[in-house]
Amino acid sequence: MYDVKSKKAEEFIDDQEILETIQYAQENKSNRELIESLIERARDCKGLSHREAALLLECDQPDLIDKMYHVAKEIKQKFYGNRIVMFAPLYLSNYCINGCVYCPYHAKNKHIPRKKLTQEEIKAETIALQDMGHKRLALETGEDPKMNPIEYVIESIETIYGIKHKNGAIRRVNVNIAATTVENYRRLKEAGIGTYILFQETYNKKNYEELHPTGPKHDYAYHTEAMDRAMEGGIDDVGIGVLFGLNTYRYDFVGILMHAEHLEAACGVGPHTISVPRICPADDIDTADFSNAISDEIFQKIVAVIRIAVPYTGMIISTRESVASRKKVLELGISQISGGSRTSVGGYVNKEERDDSSAQFDVSDTRTLDEVVQWLLELGFIPSFCTACYREGRTGDRFMKLVKSGQIANCCQPNALMTLKEYLMDYASPKTKELGEKLIMEELERVTNPKVKEIARQHLQDIENGQRDFRF
Fold this sequence. Notes:
This protein starts with 8 loop residues before the first helix and ends in an 8-residue tail after the last helix. Helix 13 (296-309) links the parallel strand 6 (273-275) and strand 7. The chain is globular. Strands 1, 2, 3, 4, 5, 6, 7, 8 and 9 form a nine-stranded parallel beta sheet that branches. By secondary structure, the chain is an alpha/beta fold. It is 48% helix and 10% strand.
């Protein structure tokens, strides 16, 4: 029985509810009046239910799809403006005891070299990332309680936060590790993590168990209920996601929106971010083995409808996607992207060797961070390295209230400009700096609060004179 507030995975992600939702959407996909009314209502930026969103996703009428895309762009502009938050993944270890059939880290893969960074190697990786200009990381490890215990993750977080190289600093460490206990989530919170990220992979229980035949990740309920335990442990910023292509996209699309609704109803705050990776090639993984892989067109529609359904939530896209694909979805709803990413353990220090033998997946967008920043500037976006909300305590429901009211822009816009200024002063190529300085001057004039504008203007000058780390 479907119960959005239940703490049991099979009840807040109810199989029958998902199947009925998909059937409803298919039966009504030609109901123009109903679809147009949903698109129009979405303009109030209060979101749509999973069933309403499923209907929009099923719509195949080109003119209505165009309207959806237009509304998605409107919503993104209202909540996020033209800011794009930058981050990079940092792989600590690829030791793993799970048997996930889509991941080269699976325990039966005997030819992938297993690596685990020492604290000294983590320092070197952190300095390499700082020297690129990054301020926000997402830590990644395989699931292996002996090789990658929670103590190792916490020590690594402390190491990363402790490195101050030249003008560099990692100001926010997000963590993407296996589902764990309330106590361990409490320890991660005390260590100062930003967002706890965990991908569901697929919400179809039968399919999930087949894809995870061995290891602790096989436990569907324990994995699906992880975010409830994380919030119980005090982590109020959580990030969810699925790996599109493992199961039918319609099922997982509905599932992820039901998960977002559950967190809002049961925990008082929805997900801080939603990630939308697609299955892609890796060491011994061939995407041809996955018949549910989705096209660029379907992927773009998924991004747009998620933006419409949960307008308050950040959306993340990784370097799995090509430059062309990233460009399209940036316009439709994505608010965070990685840049200069390496998905191998130790990949930032050894980048010249191009040793991807320990990589989790192939990177499609292989550009440097500076090239990505320059590209965003040319497209009219503000590459933002801001971490202010996390450090000012604007997390969880406090952050969401500001987002939903539209007041977050009073902080985000000037913070984005100031962190971009830091990047331009410390790391940018001459061309990137030229483009960035021009954009900052133009965007500063769009700050509507006169007091905020004046303070931001002064801080920009202070950064020019060598000071760092200003924030609203």
